Amino acid sequence: MEENISQDLEFGSIKISDEVVAIIAGIAATEIPGVAGMSGGVVNGITEMLGRKNLSKGVKVEVGEKETAIDLFIIVDYGVRIPEVAWNIQENVKKSVETMTGLKVVAVNIHVQGVNMEKEQKSQESVKED
């Protein structure tokens, strides 16, 4: 990713890379209850196999001079209300990116890529054990 954000100030310039915007968006998205995780591609899977956690996994950003658009690829927990989770993600990502970078977020597109059944299976197993 290249450095797209640059501001010339009186004492120098500030540059924020696309990767930084993606990391902020990824962390803000996973803070929302009901998000099981981010969905990454083959490259992200290989990165994680090597033991490196990729905080921008499942995030695609397009950064202009003063605006940005963000695509998030997520996996939700089984049983959650997906539209409500998506709205909460959009609000939290927009607020976090705008606050931390000063960029205007024009779009936060949510792509639900899967449903995590692990919690549902664990709760059923604990009921059987009781």
Gap between N and C termini: 51 Å
The total count of helices amounts to 4
**Elements, N to C (H/E):** EEHEHEEHEH
Low-confidence stretches: none
What's the alpha carbon Rg, rounded to whole Å? 17 Å
Strand elements, count: 6
Strand content: 35-45%
Bulk shape: elongated
Mean pLDDT: 83
Binned, the helix content reads: 40-55%
InterPro entries: Asp23
Pfam family, one: Asp23
Protein name: Asp23/Gls24 family envelope stress response protein
Family: Belongs to the asp23 family.
Descriptive notes:
- Helix 1 crosses helix 3 (82-101).
- The longest helix is centred in the last third of the chain and has 20 residues, at 82-101.
- With 130 residues, this protein is α+β, with helices and mostly antiparallel strands.
- Helices cover 41% and strands 35% of the residues.
- It contains 4 helices and 6 strands; from the N terminus they run E-E-H-E-H-E-E-H-E-H.
- The strands form 2 sheets. Strands 3, 4, 5 and 6 form a 4-stranded mixed sheet that branches. A two-stranded antiparallel sheet has the order 1-2.
- The model has no long low-confidence stretch (mean pLDDT 83).
- The protein is elongated.
List key phrases describing it.
130 residues, single chain, 4 helices, alpha+beta
Set down the secondary structure blueprint:
Layout: E1 3-9, E2 12-17, H1 18-30, E3 35-38, H2 42-49, E4 59-63, E5 67-77, H3 82-101, E6 104-116, H4 118-129
Parallel strand pairs: 5-6
Antiparallel strand pairs: 1-2, 3-5, 4-5
Helix pairs in contact: 1-3
